[in-house]
From TrEMBL:
Keywords assigned by UniProt, alphabetized: Cytoplasm, Cytoplasmic vesicle, Endoplasmic reticulum, ER-Golgi transport, Membrane, Metal-binding, Phosphoprotein, Protein transport, Transport, Zinc
Residues annotated as domain Zinc finger Sec23/Sec24-type: 376-414
Family: Belongs to the SEC23/SEC24 family. SEC24 subfamily.
Protein location: Cytoplasm, Cytosol; Cytoplasmic vesicle, COPII-coated vesicle membrane; Endoplasmic reticulum membrane
GO biological process, one term: COPII-coated vesicle cargo loading
Limits of the Gelsolin-like domain: 918-989
Database matches in CDD domains: Sec24-like
Gene Ontology, cellular component aspect: COPII vesicle coat; cytosol; endoplasmic reticulum exit site; endoplasmic reticulum membrane
Disordered: annotated segments: 1-100, 141-305
Membrane-topology annotation of the record: Peripheral membrane protein
Low complexity composition-biased segments: 10-33, 65-79, 207-221
Protein's recorded name: SEC24 homolog C, COPII coat complex component
Length: 1048
């Protein structure tokens, strides 16, 4: 799948599915993110009410399709539909089904089962007698999404009987799915042991009134006699509508295995059958369909409330008044008009905002608008910035604010006449009137102490304790910095970077270096009183690289020699940050500290820590303390850093527990990045570290940043997630904000919204550029508002929803037991799906699991979040790993969380060596792997190369340069450079994947049946995990049970 965006570009995964057969699907998962810390962003002066534009043309709305996968025990369910009501509202009798007409209130997203077979099983005629009986005992679940108006999909029966949930203990589920219960059984009775993630006890059998019958046949008139035999040939399309046979889709099984002779023999019910993984929604199919449907056309942002393509689709964006999905993605692009409706659906309303996202080369960067000394034009009351949604009135002399409705005079220098439509005649000449994203040059009023800022500084702070020197790390850093200093970020047209640099080394004491250009040799000054940190020199500490180059090179040559024989093993950490902060204060500038640190700071000093790691706390109420800092010292220090614009990037090289939860606090709250290289070894980890360091030093960063999100009346920003600090309820403050970081904002209703005006958000980021220029970057987005739940479910974006839910859960573990957090996640998603089932799907048997089309992947992705190391740690996962992942995910964009939770698995032996494209991805399950093939699996942090035991000798020779499987070394961290087409192709695929991710991924070679295979299998997320995480099939059954409990 070529996500050809860089990870940070954002769009890839959460975009709406391209129009399924002509319909645009609602956004894929765009639910709001739950976890945004509340109130952090308050209303930026006024809630953003909905700015509702006219409904987008039919083409841009995704039709709710309903996916009807019916999970029914082992056989396919027959359609519980009445006479003309075939699923999705197509008249039952016509043989070739077509997609429902656009006007149908096609349900919002029902999730079609990816199964190609799903609906085919529907028999369009009255069920033969035997079927009738069978379906009476079917405990079937339909995973169907049905459209509001349409009758429920006929259950594809996949047999998930109520009792097939995994036992609580986490023991493996019996391989077969229990067959339909015999008539005497009350099928609804809870399995005796519940799956390990069941929070509430399943309902007593009585709720199902008697034996659980499959779709109630009696109440619905049977469909008219079939005009054709049951068709294996009709596949349910991804969006639940039918089409003529297209042959099984990739990754979907053929035409429903095992049911062909359904109503023919009245004999005994067939033996129990396991739910077929090919018949449940497939992420790969959804991604491929979106690519083929939406990858070719540019995404034009002129229409309100359009769901963008998925983040995994490579597409071009044309800004025509709304911000690109690379900057903002929402959990839903059509939000409920009332808070009651929002509460009923439980779909979180959130936006994942990446204000400085990198754009692909063929898209235009935001224009910089300079209004001179008067500064940007703003609303008098709520202070919103001029944008395309402001309404000019009285011939252009005043404008009415689209956020708070206040009328403001247009300043004389900004006046322009209106044309006959009420638009200013300079509309297309002004970015702020015609584009969704643009920048303003800020005036001195937007600067600290009312004076323009100095250019920022970078301070490199190197741990020179025994471990750092002995591992070769100190020498490596010094060598790299000699060349890297020529690549500091600079404004587009500048000859050289304006950033000044400084150097500190430390162990138990700190060493500052004077590298003034007039010196022949650098001078070192030692500060041993770490309890009262100060900077011993002002002049000569922060310098211009070109002016002081010879002195700097001399220093970098000398540092490894000076400390070559050190025996000092202890380090300090708090005073190191304090020293950097004091240096920036003295220079009156913002900046970034690059700290290279190896061990737990146990030396006597402020911020000293003790080893408090304790695996015994896992799964207890005290587990949350492992994620909390052990002292408040670093929280206070972070606050001081933010006030100065001092951002901290941390490179950690631990050989044992380091307390990432505490050391990472300053990085996290200043908007910095953490990189961790456990058991660092020069030969295996050098490439990864140097690539990360180069990218970190060179990437675009805004300093001393403040972000506020304003909303139109009716909703307001209440909660925020990400790497930042908040001193009030509305302003997100970041000492530094780079092009990879996102801030997730959750919105709540504070009034009613109207369908006519919709809802608006405006994200305003005030920051200092790397040249010291104060700027405002503005992103505007208009959303639709709805009074029908079906419209909400039709316009969600699952990838964004999962991004929000993961962040919400990862914040939850700071204050609640992990089990509570997991149960709350499962419960919220069950409520989202139950609300859809109850209010949007046509009435159908409780045995059918019906999913909204654009949320049909919610169960599989949610299960991946639940199985992640933060919420369900594997045996080898350290406390530091969990704290590290928790911080990392909190500022990931949608494309990154997508591949992190559901890794990309590519069969490289199937790759076409003559094409530039990636091979088609396959689903993350061991049963998809063939012993004769080689696969790549990437999740944004690692790339695994899995080699099957039966791979041809020629392929092994071409890729690894050895003659047999047994000679392949598992310690390789790069593939050998061999001159043959297969080697070049695999290396080029790896390079393509590396470019798309914000971190350099570690390459790990895994031979089948080798000890590393256990690690690799944790990433096959559709399978049961060793730590007790459910397989996708089992979890789907479990979710179905939770939904039925809620509905009953």
């Amino acid at each position: 799948m070529s996500v050809n965006q860089q990870t940070h570009t954002g769009p890839p995964y959460g975009q709406p599915q391209p129009g399924y057969q002509g319909y645009q699907q609602p956004a894929y998962g765009g639910q709001p993110l739950p976890g945004v810390p509340h109130s952090q962003y308050g209303v930026y002066n006024g809630p953003m009410p909905g700015y509702q534009q006219p409904v987008p043309p039919q083409g841009s709305v995704r039709a709710p399709s309903t996916s009807g996968t019916s999970l029914s025990s082992g056989h396919l369910g027959y359609s519980p539909f009445g006479q003309g009501d075939v699923q999705n509202g197509i008249p039952a009798s016509t043989a070739p089904m077509q997609r429902p007409p656009a006007s149908q209130p096609f349900l919002p997203g029902s999730a079609p089962v990816p199964v190609s077979q799903t609906s085919m099983l529907q028999q369009y005629g009255p069920p033969p007698a035997s079927v009738q009986q069978l379906s009476n005992h079917m405990a079937g679940m339909t995973i169907g999404s049905t459209s509001t108006s349409a009758p429920p999909p006929a259950g594809l029966g996949y047999g998930i009987g109520p009792s097939s949930y995994p036992p609580t203990t986490g023991a493996p589920r019996p391989p077969t799915m229990p067959g339909p219960p015999l008539p005497v059984q009350t099928a609804a009775g809870p399995p005796t042991s519940q799956p390990n993630h069941v929070s509430s006890p399943p309902p007593p059998p009585s709720t199902l009134s008697g034996p659980y019958q499959g779709p109630p046949m009696s109440g619905l008139r049977g469909p008219p006699p079939p005009t054709h035999p049951p068709q294996p040939g009709y596949q349910m399309q991804q969006n639940g509508s039918f089409e003529q046979v297209r042959g099984p889709q990739t990754n979907y099984g053929g035409a429903y295995p095992g049911t062909p002779n359904y109503g023919s023999q009245p004999g005994p019910p067939p033996p129990p059958k396991r739910l077929d993984p090919d018949s449940i929604p497939s992420p790969i199919q959804v991604i491929e369909d979106d690519r083929s449907n939406r990858g070719s056309e540019p995404f034009v942002t002129g229409v309100r409330g359009q769901v963008p393509p998925l983040v995994t689709t490579n597409f071009l964006v044309k800004d025509q008044g709304n911000a690109s999905p690379r900057y903002i993605r929402c959990t839903s692009y059509n939000i409920p008009c009332t808070s009651d409706m929002a509460k009923q659906s439980q779909v979180p309303l959130a936006a994942v905002i990446k204000p400085l996202a990198t754009l692909p080369p063929d898209e235009t960067l935001p224009y910089l608008v300079d209004h001179g000394e008067s500064g940007p034009v703003r609303c008098n009351r709520c202070k919103a910035y001029m944008c395309p949604f402001m309404q000019f009135i009285e011939g252009g002399r005043r404008f009415q604010c689209c956020f708070c409705s206040c009328v403001t005079e247009v300043p004389p220098h900004y006046f322009q006449h209106l044309d006959h439509t009420g638009k200013r005649v300079d509309f297309y000449d002004r970015p702020e009137l015609s584009l969704g994203s643009y920048e303003f040059l800020a005036t001195v009023d937007y600067c600290k102490n009312n004076k323009f800022p100095s250019p920022p500084a970078f301070i490199f702070m190197i741990d020179v304790s025994y471990n750092a020197v002995k591992s070769g790390l100190v020498r490596l850093i010094c060598e790299e910095l000699k060349s890297l200093l020529d690549y500091l970020p600079r404004e587009g047209n500048m000859e050289e970077s304006a950033i000044r640099v400084g150097f500190v080394t430390y162990n138990k004491v700190l060493h500052f270096y004077n590298v003034k250009s007039s010196l022949a040799q650098p001078q070192m000054m030692v500060v041993s009183d770490v309890a009262d940190m100060f900077v011993p020199l002002l002049d000569g500490f922060l310098v211009n690289v070109n002016e002081s180059r010879t002195v700097i090179i001399s220093l970098l040559d000398q540092i490894p020699e000076m400390f070559a024989d050190t025996r000092e093993t202890e380090t300090v950490f708090g005073p190191v940050i304090q020293a950097g902060l004091e240096a920036l204060k003295a220079a009156e500038c913002a900046g970034k500290l690059f700290i290279f640190h190896t061990s737990l700071p146990i030396a006597e000093a402020p911020g000293k820590l003790k080893n408090r790691d304790d695996k015994k706390l896992i799964n207890t109420d005290k587990e949350k303390t492992l994620f909390q800092p052990q002292t408040s010292f670093y929280n206070n220090l972070a606050k001081d850093c933010v006030a100065q614009g001092c951002c901290v990037d941390l490179f950690l090289f631990p050989n044992q527990y380091l307390d990432v939860a505490t050391l990472g606090i300053v990085t996290y709250q200043t908007g910095g990045s953490i990189y961790k290289y456990a058991y660092f070894q020069l030969e295996t980890d050098q490439d990864r570290f140097l690539n990360d360091l180069r990218r970190d030093v060179q990437k675009e960063v805004g300093f001393d940043a403040v972000m506020r999100v304003r909303t139109s009346t009716g909703i307001r920003a209440t909660d925020f997630f990400g790497a930042f600090f908040m001193s009030n309820t509305t302003d997100v403050e970041m000492a530094g904000l780079d092009c990879d970081k996102t801030i997730t904002v959750e919105f709540k209703h504070d009034d009613k919204l109207s369908e006519d005006s919709g809802a608006l958000l405006q994200c305003a980021l005030l920051y200092t550029s790397c040249a010291g220029q104060r700027r405002l970057r503005i992103h505007n987005l208009s959303l639709n508002c709805c009074t029908q739940l079906a419209d909400l479910y039709r316009n969600c974006e699952t990838d964004t929803l999962i991004n929000y839910l993961a962040k919400y859960a990862y914040r939850g573990v700071l204050n609640s037991p992990v089990k509570t957090v997991r149960d709350a996640l499962i419960n919220q998603c069950a409520q989202i799906l139950a609300c859809y089932r109850k209010n949007c799907a046509s009435p159908s048997s409780a045995g059918q699991l019906i999913l909204p089309e654009c949320m049909k992947l919610l169960p599989v992705y949610l299960n991946c979040v639940l199985k992640s190391d933060v919420l369900q740690p594997g045996l080898e996962v350290t406390t530091d790993d969990r704290a590290y992942i928790r911080q990392l995910v909190t500022s990931m964009d949608v494309a990154e969380t997508n591949v992190f939770f559901y890794p990309r698995l590519l069969p490289v032996t199937k790759a076409d060596v003559d094409s530039d494209s990636l091979p088609a991805a396959i689903r993350n399950s061991e049963e998809r792997l063939s012993k004769g093939d080689i696969y790549l699996l990437e999740n944004g942090l690692n790339i695994f190369v899995w080699v099957g035991v039966n791979v041809q000798q020629g392929l092994i020779q071409n890729l690894f340069g050895v003659s047999s499987f047994s000679q392949i070394s598992s310690t390789l961290n790069t593939l050998p450079v061999l001159e043959n087409p297969f080697s070049k192709k695999v290396r080029s695929i790896i390079d393509m994947l590396q470019v798309q991710r914000s971190r350099y991924m570690k390459l790990i070679i895994v031979k089948q049946e080798d000890k590393l295979e256990m690690l690799f299998k944790q990433f096959l997320v559709e399978d049961k995990s060793l730590t007790g995480g459910a397989s996708y099939v089992d979890f789907l059954c479990h979710m179905h049970k939770e939904i039925r409990q809620l509905l009953s």
